[in-house]
What we know:
The complex is a heterodimer of chains A (about 230) and B (about 475). Chain A is of the alpha+beta class and about 230 residues long. Chain A folds into two domains: about 5-75, Ubiquitin-like (UB roll), CATH 3.10.20.740; about 85-205, Alpha-Beta Plaits (2-Layer Sandwich). Helices cover about 20% and strands about 15% of the residues of chain A. Chain A contains six helices and ten strands. The longest helix of chain A is centred in the middle third of the chain and has 17 residues, at about 80-95. Chain B is an alpha+beta fold and about 475 residues long. Chain B has one domain (about 40-410): Orthogonal Bundle (Cytochrome-c3 Hydrogenase, chain B). Helices cover about 40% and strands about 15% of the residues of chain B. In chain B, the strands form five sheets. In chain B, strands 2-1-14-15 form a four-stranded mixed beta sheet, covered by helices on one side. In chain B, strand 12 and strand 13 (about 400-405) form a beta hairpin. Classes of the chains: A alpha+beta (about 230), B alpha+beta (about 475).
Amino acid sequence: MSEFVSFKIDGKQCMGRAGEYITEAAERNSIYIPTLCNYKDTAPKASCRVCTVKVNGRVMTSCTTPLQEGMEIENETAEIQDIRSGIIELLFAEGNHLCPSCEKSGSCELQALGYRFRMMVPRFPYLFPVREIDASHPRLIKDHNRCILCKRCVRVMKDEKGRSFFAFYKRGAKLEITVAPELADKITDEVAQKAMDVCPTGALLRKRQGWDVPVGKRLFDMKPIGSEFEQVK
Amino acid sequence: MSRKITIEPVTRVEGHGKVTIHLDKAGEVSQSRLHIVEFRGFERFVQGRPYWEVPVLVQRLCGICPVSHHLAAAKAVDVIAGAGTGDGLTVTGDKMRRLMHYAQFFQSHVLHFFHLVSPDLLLGVDADPAIRNIIGVALQHKDLAVQGVMMRKFGQELIEVTAGKKIHGTGAIPGGVNKNLSIEERDRFLKGADPLNADKMIEWSVAALDLFKDYYGKNKETVDGFSHFPSNHLSLVRKDGALDFYHGGIRAVDSEGNKIIDYADYQDYTNIIGEGVKSWSYMKFPYLLSLGEEEGWYRVGPLARLNTCDFIPSPLAQKEFEIFRAHTNGKPNNMCMHYHWARIIEILHSAEVIKELLEDPDLQGTDLVATGERKDEGVGLVEAPRGTLFHHYNVNEDDQITMCNLIVSTTNNNVPMNKAVNFVAKAQMSGQAEITEPMMNMVEVAIRAYDPCLSCATHALGEMPLEVTMLDADGNEITSRKR
């Protein structure tokens, strides 16, 4: 049985299991720490850095930092919020995120965090990278304009043998997601739909079906991101 | 050596018109042109996008009639998705789209009549520009201004429950719609508290028509004679010849009412319509191929629709239609200012259709989407408030758009608007040394009758950013006014 430890988030006394990640422990204590790359029941990656907190004065990613007795965690301080806001703004500035015509609008976690952090316009100049959309797969479209390289799809979308449907391809600024060639034929409409749901943005879309969820019933239309944790008291 | 770089036009601005008036050596107006200096580029930048994204993407062309673009694109995408050409949808899908569309007609026409035109009618075309606007109307005719606002609210809120949002909704999807109308939503519009219910909208539509007829009775000569010239007319009509804003075949009649085309399949529009270009405008000049570029230009919009259809399928509007047609002895009406008359009859018709649809239990159906065999090309046509709207897309085997061609309503009216400007310029400005504000407004009145989309800016509050330049026979500028 796990050892229980006590810790504090923004001065609030909390309890958690030693060794679990700060993000999970915070949620169980009704505190939301925003993440983009993190996904339920999947090993964390800490690629997006949105979950940045200060632990005993040091900047850490909460999704990969195991909980220890007596930790003093800063989550919603002005400094941390500004760091997170800056990271989100960087993601918007680095890609081509055109929400008005994106099918994930309303269900997009990046957009939802933009709203949460009340982002009006990024403090950084837009890069407007020239990126193609890859529609060559019969069930799935990859829109690299919207990919934030969080690697969720690589870590979550696996076949029955545990092989990833997706992989990173190329390097540096040209890094992109690709479909594993040997598994391309195994991507059905259902797999494509799940990949679309797993992607925190609109970078992965299943084909030939669009906007079937009406405005008002999209993921974040009624409940802002994080509210499912914050409202549990 | 120095070099001058000019960036013109400034892109992605809305509603900027430019008029040039050429004078001959005697000081008479020889030619006038309405220049559209906007450049939007939608036809290019949708290339590469997946086809099912188009109804949501392309409607961003406009914030006033996005529903029309949404539905024209959706109809084209229906064809690509294998759901047929407008008549292949499920009953609920078809009627939900119609409700969305007629609500759009209602609010757009109301906005035009009450907010944009009524200042000219109620306060006079030569009234002080400081009061010749909707605020001036509100101060002097409070009840009327409230009616205009509430009627538009009714239409916009009806769009919201069908499309998901008042502006730029997502309701129409390939092969159908993504929601039906709940009983609660229906009752809100059918039995809503006064004045926001369908019966009140019909009552107020009749009152708006009476207002115009009263004005017309007192200003008959001005209204009839203002920019009156013959033309062909084009619109969609239902198979039985009825007025239909959402679906039908293409009908064109000449200025005497003879049918040039009747119930032509719009999938074949490239064999019916040609698109001319001029060096002085970014807007294309459509024409009927069978008549050629010189003779084949036509009007679209409310006036054209009432000139092409045989009847209006709603009782009150049909009675008004009969009066309208009797005015020109059953022949097409070629009087520019009668666009307003036709537009208000369409407001009444829209209100009647909205009520009829709201009472239809098919709107509570759950079969929302039709499917079929995927195709590589689709054309979608609807009657937008300002006239016939063409959307045409080709897609590749990977489902990406490879070609897009849009002929928007205002483009169809390009030649008539130029002729209207020329008509007014000759009447008002020949032999004049200076362009006065009332003269400027007369040009605007002529353009405004067509409710062009370049006047999106007028929808902000009353005045179109318009530049009028007068040139002498050698092309030198004599005088110019800008606002």
